[in-house]
TrEMBL record:
Pathway: Carbohydrate degradation; 2-deoxy-D-ribose 1-phosphate degradation; D-glyceraldehyde 3-phosphate and acetaldehyde from 2-deoxy-alpha-D-ribose 1-phosphate: step 2/2
Reactions it catalyzes: 2-deoxy-D-ribose 5-phosphate = D-glyceraldehyde 3-phosphate + acetaldehyde
Gene Ontology, cellular component aspect: cytoplasm
Region (Disordered): 1-23
Name the UniProt record assigns to this protein: Deoxyribose-phosphate aldolase
Organism: Hartmannibacter diazotrophicus
Taxonomy of the source species: Bacteria, Pseudomonadati, Pseudomonadota, Alphaproteobacteria, Hyphomicrobiales
Length: 337
């Protein structure tokens, strides 16, 4: 079978990645409250935009395989359960290093390419375990922090948790904002909080989790996105995965429009991470299509696009196996870890 990447122009590494964060950090800017207050979002137009996406965009055969392989490289393979153990985390890290079975990659003509996931995401308790398990792979460890998922612990405790995860080797920190600041329109407080988180991260990249399902309106989502980027967030992320409503295409559209506006204003490229509820290959393709249409091809790379998921990887592997064999296998034959 021909290399599917050649049919699409999607790039895959020839050698092992040296880390997935290739872009300069977002330095942030002074809080511009006038810009924030001026934000508008046309809800009905946004709904029409995302409703027509699946019907307008589709990929088949080798092209679909290439898009799905690219999606694999953007997954933050995640375990955030109360019953996590070191052994579970080690199994997850092994899957991150070899996310697609070798026989499937060989059939796709991709056996020589070092396909890995974008990161492994864990609680602070397991950062050191994951760092050790991933040593030499180039795969960063991401730690959820700042009182995840509710973010309702004291501010100084949040900063200490970030610093502890960085000391243990986390290269990325997924923080949760204080939703109260958004719901009360206290943009200065949100900005100051995010600046403190950014400073505590040091060289580690910071992803700001907005918990969009708690923010009530899409206008609030766009405003919170802008303020977090102004304060130096390297990524903005939809959800913890623990809210009643997590990632959706509509909230994604709102956040991508904020990223585009920030880039036009500052020249800085900020990444995007949907999380929660994305479990099928069909789902992730729609997110990729929207990313490309709204922001461009460059935003399909793992230094600008991540997806927080675990079960998604199993379905992608099933789809890739179907592509090369013509048969669907049972979901349990594709364990995540």
């Amino acid at each position: 079978m021909a290399d599917p990447a050649r049919a699409t122009g999607l790039a895959f590494p020839e050698t092992a990645p040296k880390g997935h964060n290739a872009l300069p950090r977002n330095p942030g800017m002074a809080l511009d409250e006038a810009w924030v207050r001026s934000v508008r979002f046309n809800h009905s137009a946004g709904e029409r935009r995302v409703a027509t996406l699946p019907g307008r965009r589709t990929v088949k055969k080798d092209a679909q395989a290439a898009w799905l392989l690219k999606a694999v490289t953007c997954i933050d393979l995640t375990t955030l359960s109360g019953d996590d153990t070191p052994e579970r985390v080690k199994r997850l890290c092994a899957k991150a290093k070899s996310p697609v079975r070798h026989d499937i990659l060989e059939a796709l003509g991709m056996a020589g390419r070092p396909i890995t996931t974008g990161a492994v995401c864990v609680y602070h308790r397991f950062v050191a375990t994951a760092v050790e398990a991933l040593a030499g792979s180039g795969i960063p460890v991401a730690a959820v922090s700042t009182g995840f998922p509710a973010g309702l612990v004291p501010h100084d405790v949040k900063l200490k948790e970030i610093e502890a995860s960085v000391r243990d080797g986390a290269a990325e920190i997924d923080i949760v904002i204080t939703r109260e600041h958004v719901l009360t329109g206290n943009w200065q407080a949100l900005y100051d909080e995010m600046r403190d988180f950014r400073a505590a991260c040091g060289e580690a990249h910071v992803k700001a989790i907005l918990a969009t399902g708690d923010l009530k309106t899409l206008r609030n989502v766009v405003k919170a996105s802008l303020v977090c980027m102004m304060a130096g967030a390297d990524f903005i992320k939809t959800s913890t995965g623990k809210e009643g409503v997590n990632a959706t295409l509509l909230v994604t559209l709102a956040m991508l429009r904020a990223i585009r506006a920030y880039h036009e204003q500052t020249g800085v490229m900020v990444g995007y991470k949907p999380a929660g509820g994305i479990s099928s290959a069909k789902d992730i393709l729609n997110y990729q299509f929207l990313m490309r249409e709204e922001l461009g091809r460059r935003w399909l790379e793992p230094d600008l696009f991540r997806v927080g998921a675990s079960s998604l990887l199993a379905d992608i592997e099933r789809q890739l196996e179907h592509h090369v064999t013509g048969r669907y296998s049972a979901h349990h034959r594709h364990p995540v870890g």
